[in-house]
Amino acid sequence: MAMNKPADQGRGGLAAPLPEQVEVPLDNDPQLLRIRRIGKKLFDVANCVIAFGNTIPPQLSSDPAANGVETAFCHDISLSDETVVVHDTRRHASLALHPAVNGAPHIRFYASHPVYNQDKVLVGNLSLVDYTPRALFRESERQMLADLAGLVERELELRSVNASQLDLQKKNKNLRRKSLIDPLIGTWNRGAIMRILTIEAIRCDKAGLPLSLIVADLDYFKKINDTYGHPAGDAVLVKVASRLRSCIRPQEALGRYGGEEFLIVLPGASHATAMTVAERMRAAIAAQPEAIGGTNLNLTISAGVASTDMFPTATTEELISRADVALYAAKDSGRNKVMNATPPDSP
Ligand SMILES: Nc1nc2c(ncn2[C@@H]2O[C@H](COP(=O)(O)OP(=O)(O)OP(=O)(O)O)[C@@H](O)[C@H]2O)c(=O)[nH]1
């Protein structure tokens, strides 16, 4: 019997402890199944098994190329960092005692080659199993077995690269999201809402649709801060943002334009529609007091509305400043009001 290294330990008696966190593929990974099928055909053996250090052996695999008993047998043998060839298992000290050797399906031949991950950590073995002993396992066959194990390693590497890429994409997405969202109230921040306004203005212009915007501002907010403290003021901003958000549709956007000033972009909305939305917002805030830190606070907003159907040639900046003028008119006329920006000669 020629053998490079005795496969004489059960899974519980590994010579070297397995790394805890080794990424291992699933047993029914299609790429690995393909490699196993090639191995089976190439070496004309009963089975080609890829056993990973920390996977549970699939006793009943759905894979037609796999045989549960042989797979379990290969999982029972400790990982080896060298090529192992057992020409006849009946003559091997410990394998001869294995139930799959001294009983059905009477495994007689076993060969394996180590599989490393990209960190050069031993993670598994690619093994061949057959029912008849083999007198010979040539050097060229050892080389082919090593090449096959190399294909498995390549798969692991690809898998790891894909996972890192996905992770990076996720992180980028989160970072991008963070750069667009106001950290306190969770609406678009000023930069993001301005970008949305620019994009929507171009889109509506091309489509021949109107575009409206609302600038809404909390009334007497300084008094809330002064009376109840800045954290209470922050809580008010969060609640108000939530009520405003409930008044708009998904294709409309709410952003924090300044401290307690909100910009709402309404693509496709006419001036009349925008006035209705702004009035709905005003009513939603004034409808009932907000409980902040055990105190019921009566809140109101004032709002100014400007639309391209009233100012067809206005730039987005001009529209905002028109809405701002209307907002201050609403403040001047007593607050808790909505005012519209109209051209000087309109009724
Ligand atoms: N708590 C809190 N306060 C803020 C924040 N940003 C701005 N403010 C405060 O908002 C207040 C705005 O005050 P003013 O501009 O006088 O407005 P106002 O008191 O609402 O008065 P009117 O708008 O005229 O009704 C200031 O006290 C700012 O410090 C914030 O993020 N959190």
Automatic annotation (TrEMBL):
Show the PANTHER family listed in the entry.
DIGUANYLATE CYCLASE DGCM-RELATED (PTHR45138:SF9), REGULATORY COMPONENTS OF SENSORY TRANSDUCTION SYSTEM (PTHR45138)
Question: Which Gene Ontology terms of cellular component type are present?
Answer: plasma membrane
GO molecular function (one): diguanylate cyclase activity
Output the PROSITE patterns linked to this UniProt entry.
Answer: GGDEF (PS50887)
- InterPro entries xref list: Diguanylate_Cyclase, GAF, GGDEF_dom, Nucleotide_cyclase, Rev_trsase/Diguanyl_cyclase
Question: What is the protein name given in its UniProt record?
Answer: diguanylate cyclase
- Provide the E.C. number(s) assigned to this enzyme: 2.7.7.65
Kind of enzyme, top EC level?
transferase
Q: Which reaction does it catalyse?
A: 2 GTP = 3',3'-c-di-GMP + 2 diphosphate
Give me any GO biological process, just one: negative regulation of bacterial-type flagellum-dependent cell motility
Among SUPFAM superfamilies, the record links this protein to:
GAF domain-like (SSF55781), Nucleotide cyclase (SSF55073)
Transmembrane stretches in the record are none
**All copies of domain GGDEF, residue ranges:** 209-343
